[in-house]
């Protein structure tokens, strides 16, 4: 690559690579503050020059990492000694934190290099260990700075991509899940920029679906707080937010790891009312996603009395609505057949509902458990969800 000899020497010493980049970023940070304060042509030019120096050094480190990427990508390979030296220097110099803190001062191409550098160093292994993950675990400010990057349109996507690379590691995801900062994501997914909102939702979904056992434990322990915020997404005025949140809700409830969470959610009559209201949404997509949540309420063989009462009161309207509910014409015939089978199942269960008899002396009121309501439905085919 033509950028390799930018400093008049080949890239042989990883310590020098890190040191040079750190010095360039520190210089940029210093001159940028001065330029912002003075707004003078001379200091602005110095800031631009410092930015160029950072970009050159980022390119140099990218080139170095690119040459060792094959080693890092091979799980069976021994750690590259040069890469290990570079990584250790990155940790001891706190370079990752420095780069994130100054990301908005770096130019567009430089930000792409930062994402690449961050990703490659994250993937660096030493035996069974991921030293960079351990480094970030001890310095979680890096994670939270990346997450707060969604508040800065110029760096939001770079931060989001890097944040997801971090949270693919369970130990780092757990830090975020159990932090107050997690709840900022509920705000970020409703960003005015469609691109930023979509990226934030990708991070949100990644956190709630990748590490299933950890997430299930977290959701159980923080059910009220999480679903209070989640309900706001389901009531959002933004169509895309509502649809994505509703679709993700269905996936979460149907994941076997979240059985206790699902049981609690479908035992709440307010949740059923909200889902039924979304069945009437003007958008076919919203109605379809609502159906996949609604059927979980119906398929529950142990419905609490408030849930059963709502379904009984609305039985005729529900049967009439579902009988007319169709997918879009362009949906694949096999997917349409699956949907129609599920719909027929739900209609049958609603028609066969019976009220719970009043408990007699010594009875536990468990009559609902003997209803002929069938087993829970299988998860919907994701491809069906995306159509209609």
From TrEMBL:
The lineage's top-level taxon is: Eukaryota
Q: Which GO terms describe its molecular function?
A: protein serine/threonine kinase activator activity
Segments for region (Disordered): 361-388
Q: Where is the composition biased (Gly residues)?
A: 362-372
GO BP annotation list: intracellular signal transduction
**Annotated PANTHER family:** CALCIUM-BINDING PROTEIN 39-RELATED, PROTEIN MO25
Q: Which family does it belong to?
A: Belongs to the Mo25 family.
| Protein known as | Mo25-like protein
Q: Which organism is it from?
A: Varroa destructor
**Upper taxonomic classification of the species?**
Eukaryota, Metazoa, Ecdysozoa, Arthropoda, Chelicerata
